[in-house]
């Protein structure tokens, strides 16, 4: 039986999309590789979430708000809740200078504490060139 992983991302400058694709590549390279799909937050549907065994949600931190989170919260959080134990989150911060505690709060605020409490959350550095 093939496991299906859905990686959903909201990206402002493209780095969150890059991380989503890198995560997908790494998962596909596993010995018993799952089937992996990556989708923009605006493209995901409840049916795609229901078909997935695991869900990874990524968003770029933009002033304490996660890109794509508002539409995801409305559209799919009810469909992800039954998969809560197989859900993980990641954020991409443009400077990499962040407080894990602060970004964990942004994730909980963006998607609901009910969904995010106790779930793995990873915070990654973006790559804006300020020059």
Write the layout of secondary structure elements.
Blueprint: E1 4-10, H1 15-28, E2 35-40, H2 46-51, E3 54-62, E4 65-66, H3 69-75, H4 77-80, E5 87-93, H5 100-111, H6 113-116, E6 121-125
Parallel strand pairs: 1-2, 1-3, 3-5, 5-6
Antiparallel strand pairs: 3-4
Low-confidence stretches: none
State the total count of DSSP E strands.
Answer: 6
Radius of gyration: 14 Å
Strand content: 25-35%
Task: Tell me the structural class.
Answer: alpha/beta
Shape estimate: globular
Helix content: 25-40%
Distance between the termini: 49 Å
Instruction: Count up the helices.
Output: 6
Biggest sheet layout: 6 strands, mixed
Order of secondary-structure elements:
EHEHEEHHEHHE
Mean pLDDT: 86
Short descriptors:
131 residues, alpha/beta, 6 helices, 6 strands
What is shown here, in short?
By secondary structure, the protein is an alpha/beta fold. The protein has helices at residues 15-28, 46-51, 69-75, 77-80, 100-111, 113-116, and strands at 4-10, 35-40, 54-62, 65-66, 87-93, 121-125.
Describe this structure in words.
This protein is an alpha/beta fold. It is about 35% helix and about 25% strand.
């Amino acid at each position: 039986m093939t496991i299906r992983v859905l990686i959903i991302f909201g990206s402002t400058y493209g780095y969150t999309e890059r991380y989503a694709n890198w995560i997908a590549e790494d998962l596909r390279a596993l010995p018993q590789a799952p089937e992996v799909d990556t989708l923009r937050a605006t493209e995901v549907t409840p049916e795609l979430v229901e078909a997935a065994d695991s869900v990874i949600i990524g968003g770029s931190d933009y002033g304490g708000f996660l890109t794509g989170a508002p539409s995801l919260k409305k559209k799919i959080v009810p469909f992800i809740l039954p998969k809560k134990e197989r859900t993980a989150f990641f954020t991409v911060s443009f400077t990499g200078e962040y407080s894990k505690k602060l970004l964990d709060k942004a994730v909980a605020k963006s998607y609901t504490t009910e969904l995010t409490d106790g779930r793995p959350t990873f915070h990654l550095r973006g790559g804006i060139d300020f020059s």
